[in-house]
Amino acid sequence: MTQTCPPWLLAANWKMNMDHLQTLEFIRELSILMPEKEAENSGVEMAIFPPFTSLRTAQVFSTSYQVALSLGAQDVSPHPSGAFTGEVSASMLARLGCKYVLVGHSESRKNHHETREELVGKAKNAIASQMTPILCVGEEEKGGEGMEEICSQAEEVFCDLGKEEREKVIVSYEPVWAIGSSVTASPQRISRAASALKADLFKKFGASPRILYGGSVNEGNIESLKGLGLGGFLVGRASLSPAEFTAIFRCLEKGKGLA
Ligand code: PGA
Known about the structure:
Layout: E1 8-13, H1 20-33, H2 36-40, E2 44-49, H3 52-64, E3 69-73, H4 90-95, E4 98-103, H5 106-111, H6 116-128, E5 132-137, H7 147-158, H8 163-166, E6 170-173, H9 187-205, E7 211-214, E8 232-235, H10 242-255
Parallel strand pairs: 1-2, 1-8, 2-3, 3-4, 4-5, 5-6, 6-7, 7-8
Helix pairs in contact: 1-3, 7-9
The structure holds 2-phosphoglycolic acid.
């Protein structure tokens, strides 16, 4: 199945926040702040990535409150099914209406010691279940150049995907030092990283993935991050408040399109 995407993807990574009741309240508030019609014609696709336990609530109530929201999961098993206690398969997520899955977020890379093979398995299983993997890459240190590091993180997954699979992947540039901090990467650095990733993945694999940026995006800095050739943003803390998430949405809506 081919998934279509408007010019901007605004993705909310809730991490381990928002139980199912808080998720319900978020959606209720969003339905007041953001009527479905407005969101549908905005050129911005809003997606939330709640914890697994809130996915069903998000699925049911975004429909009943008529909120134009896509759904994503924060992680997925590299295995299709079977004796993997504690894991959640791609087909289970797809049946809950998930369109996206994060793969290799720096917090899961670190906390779960994810191997290259696992990241490839997660991406492949997501694609096999008609979902879009969002592969997160980012350099550890603020000081260095970092471009080689991010390109090799993307390459090591892309190299084991088939041509058609590569076309389904979104890449999110997320410098580790900018996540959960008070500073975003500079617009110049984000622009350099997006260009480096695009050039590298095109040269090595003929792939032209959509590139997102994540790392301390909020309503105060989104305006300065719009014109960098990106296809959207992955927002953590600032996505937990319906009012701030809506403010980011409105800023993108005004700018319409890849700038
Ligand atoms: P942050 O998180 O916006 O809180 O920095 C972003 C992310 O981890 O994707």
